[in-house]
Design a protein that fits this description.
It is built from 5 helices and 11 strands; from the N terminus they run E-E-E-E-E-H-E-E-H-E-H-E-H-E-H-E. With about 240 residues, it is an alpha/beta fold. Helix 4 runs parallel beside helix 5. The mean pLDDT is about 95.
Length: about 240
């Protein structure tokens, strides 16, 4: 079991990811150690506990790491303005210090599945822990077969890291973007990620799936994957 550490970290960057006209604010938050410690390598899909030093309110919260697991010099997160702590983090200035405990959670362990096809399924900021998985896969691309990402967003304005996702084809990684609410010029799938999975009917023979997002989405995708022949042991969650 990997033990967690407690770090004093400061804001390296705070970048809004959703456009100003979007009703929901999502930021990319990057934190670096204040005292120059070497951060522990972490497993793809792990998360940390973030709190404000010397304050109990807003209460600390848990956020999935969204940066590369190997030799990290900082942690990145996708934070949605959705509560007291996330509201504070969305407005935080560069250089502000935070207390970070981690890495935590079991993460996504793909080591038993070398040679398998990999399906990564997430919605909204749930793409954060999946980003660590595909970055790890890119470093060890020869260890896996087909790799496909199903990323669901409410609208086109809610899409995250669009350019990065488009560039994954260079690493032979397929990406399907699913919008819950489409528009006239959108020619991609509309609805929920489980419907896109059902329509594509991926071959479960030598495959593993990683799911991240709201519990209702995870439950629905789990049922869909099981109906497609995925064994429970090949449907992975990061917590």
């Amino acid at each position: 079991m990997q033990h967690s550490s407690i770090y004093r970290m400061r804001v390296k960057k705070n970048i809004r990811m959703t456009p100003a006209g979007c009703a929901d604010t999502v930021i990319l938050l990057a934190l670096e150690p204040v005292y120059g410690e070497t951060l522990r390598p972490f497993k793809p899909g792990q998360f940390v506990r973030i709190g404000i030093p010397r304050l109990n309110e807003p209460a600390p919260g848990f956020f999935a790491i969204a940066s590369c697991p190997e030799h990290p010099d900082s942690y990145e997160f996708f934070v949605k303005h959705a509560g007291p702590l996330s509201a504070y983090l969305c407005d935080i200035n560069e250089g502000t210090e935070l207390e970070v405990e981690g890495p935590l959670g079991k993460g996504f362990d793909l080591s038993p599945f070398k040679g398998a096809d990999v399906y990564l399924v997430g919605v909204g900021t749930g793409i954060a822990p999946l980003r660590t998985v595909w970055q790890e896969i890119i470093h060890h691309r020869e260890d896996f077969g087909k790799v496909s990402i199903y990323a669901g967003f409410l609208t086109e304005m809610h899409q995250l890291i669009t350019e990065e996702l488009e560039e994954l084809s260079r690493h032979h990684i397929e990406v399907s973007i699913i919008l819950e609410i489409g528009h006239d010029s959108w020619d991609g799938p509309i609805g929920y990620v489980q419907h896109a999975l059902e329509a594509d009917a991926p071959d479960s023979t030598h495959a593993v799936a990683c799911l991240a997002g709201m519990s209702a989405m995870v439950d629905a995708c789990t049922e869909t994957l099981q109906n497609l022949g995925f064994d429970e042991s090949r449907i992975l969650l990061n917590h």
